[in-house]
Fold NACHT domain-containing protein.
Amino acid sequence: MRQVGESGAQLYNVILDECCDCLVRIVIQLPQFAPRASVETLSRISGLADQVNVVLARLPARSVTAPEGTSSDREFTQRYLEHLSDTLDTLELFGVRFERFTRPRITLSVAYIGLSVSTEKKAGRVTETLRGTRVSDWRGDQQFNSSVRVESVLAESRLLLLRGEAGAGKSTLLRWIAITAARGKFSGDMTSWNGCIPFLIKLRSFSGERMPRPEEFIDRIADNLTGIMPRGWVHRQLIAGKALILVDGVDELVGQDRHAVREWLHGLISDFPQTRIVVTSRPVAASADWLRAEGFFSAFLERMSPADIRALIQHWHSAVRHCGDLPCPPERLPSYETALLARLESAVHLRTLAANPLLAAMLCALNLDRETQLPRDRMGLYGAALDMLLVTRDAKRGIPSSRSLSLERAQQIRILQYIAAHLSNSNRVELPKALAEQLIADRLAAMPYINQSAPEVLEYLLDRSGVIREPVLGRVDFVHRTVQEYLTAKHIADLGDMDILIRNAHRDQWRETVIMAAGHANEPLRNELIAGILSRVEAEPRHARRLKLLVVACMETLPAIPRGLESSMSKCLADLVPPRDLASARSLATAGEPVLDRLPRSLSQLSDSSARATVSVAWMINGPKALEFLEGYGCDPRFNIQQELDNAWDFFDPGVFAERVLARAPKGVTRSLTLRSPGQLHALNKIPEVTEISISSDVPIDLSVLASKAQQIRKLSIYSGVEADSLSALTTFARLKDFTFVPRVSPNSIDFLRELSPLERLYVSQCDEVEDYSALASHKQLQGLLLYSPFKLAGVQDLPPLDHVQVLALMSSRLQHGLGELIAAAPNVRDLMLDNCPWIDDLNHLDSLSLRMLWLANCPAPVKLEKIAHFSELESLDVSGSQVTDLTPLSDLKKLRILWLKDCRNIVDLTPLAALPKLTMLHLGEVSPTLDMAPLANRRNLKVTLAPGQEVVNSRMLGRRLRFDH
């Protein structure tokens, strides 16, 4: 190129460009070019696609609920649960002081004891678990109130409103649920709760504010983790049904805020229908049906039984042993425990106090401090606890802090009650630390002998008093709301401002404050307070009953009845006695023995509800005088009364109560005694006639203890573990005709039934592992047979003769033949329960029967209502899971009372059901959201139960007759 020069080079480049252009034009016209170009292009595109796939694989999967993907969910979930497990597993011991500058705490998961709740529910439906259904209740539908362990109710209730009085253990229970869920350590009935993600929401933190959105659920319980929480994580738990929302303290909000809570809960349930929710409240703030329209089941935390009290005291002393720096040598703890238990046995007033978990724990603490000098009432108990916390312990042991900052008890009380009053007046239970300092500064301005600054005084009270605390950084509250109410009452009494109490007497947030103010006030102020409330009784009929109950409740704390008001207060009491229901009984019981003087000696003139409530108020008051009344009630023949007396047995000496009360039942009266403790088992010999017994014990029982009644017992129901060797004792029960066996663990064998005298009714649950049913062969006169989950039962040939059987249930069985063989073997069946039985082939075999009850949930054979309609005596029908569409044939079933239509998605019209005169209960679920409730609007005696999250049309037309299943 250099040889041709610059001009030649330019010419060369021009010629080369032209040649290349010509060559390309020629090549692309050749037939071989297009295929080769396509191969090259596809090769490059394929490589590019591989590279894009690699990049996409590294990106998180995005969706509406996971805008940033879910790759970090597992790591964050683990970290969040670990945080809850670490931070919530502590229980502050109110009333206990140590020498270190730390608040006394114990491990909640170790110290927790299960409590009992009472529920109102319908008997008569064998649920899928069948754990609590009695054979005699198969066809019943009466309401009954039963007391069960709270864990059982939690296991069965997706939505639960848990009510309880102050100090009943509501908040502690929610914390236990949260940490147990965080660790996946639920057992027994609650095993299905493992895998839930708990969200503990304290409503006190939202007073006057809007309720939290899902993305804000962890803000106040795990503040330090909010910044790393993956977007949409809480929503994903809610949608997946893993979220467990624990809502604490409806009563800590005012009325308007409570309405917002209900709307908030309604929204959560509508948007996330699989979510589990537990809500707590004092009963004065939320009635049992407060959340019924939202589908909540309601339960009430009952007073602790003597067995529960003993367990709490033992747990308490065991827990504090490991705290270190005890107020007494650790080796002396057993002697303190024994001494306290002995005092409770002999002192009725202490035993009554100890039925409340908070007061029981305070008694334990005071027992360490005072030994034998324990107060007689809860006002004295609160005062003694504050004395010990604020003065006695530090001064007695010479703790340095008590000398470095000189605050006398009265000065500390004055400051604390000022803070308490501010909280109560503003309807709050916590406040910012800066505001607490400001309140203390205001108080110190009138206390010239205190030289310390407000921040110093606040830090001292936080560190040493044990009365206030800093639950989260920058927020201050009282260790228990009851303490706040006690100090508020004292502040108002000191000021003499009874007007504020009288004005707010009808408000549930002020109830406890008014009651304790009656105890704090001097005589003139007591007169003013009670007279003011009584004047409102006359002037405000709308609040009259609530105000009367409040006046009677004040009798608990009044040192003496105000002069001149005796007759008015007596009239209030007379208007409320006898109580009309159990809720009234609980309120009246707080007034103590004055109520007993008004109770009737005989129940014969009272309705069933009022009579039962009268028995209840007597045993709640307890003591020798109450026992006298219960002794008189023992001869009432009504079943409900005998059942309530059986409930009362837990709260008295088992032997004495059996001899003086239970033994007085009229001869031949129908009652079922429930034995819940070894003491009750051993006291049976004091009751002359016992024909029906239920055993429900937390520990395995020895059936040989029942030997003394072996010739009397006709019906025996066991709902607990049994010592294996003691089952042979049943062979001596010569008159036993009705036997129910619901063990805690599935038995491998039922051979013990072989030697029993011939039974008429038999119910055995949890037959999952039973292979040999030959032991049933000797029971040839059976009239009722129920086996649940007999998976390994091959066929009718393995069952006893069924000729006389009228009640037959083989729930979830797997027989190897069809329905025809079963009906041929049991031609006289009237109540037939065959839910979840895949072997049912043809329902035409039912034509020969005259049925009162027919349960065919999830029946594989076509269900034709035209065939069922000819059972004119039918009272209970379950065709859930069937393809039924037209309900018109059911209009001929004039005796039908209960109907299940769950998962019947093709039903379009409920009008035929309006013609059923005796239908009182309809269960719907997983039906069309366009199903109209209007045809049932005029059926006043019909109650409709919907599955959670089920939408229907015109549901409001049913009002309170519509509820959601729990």
Summary: Residues 73-126+133-302 form a domain with the Rossmann fold fold (CATH 3.40.50.300).
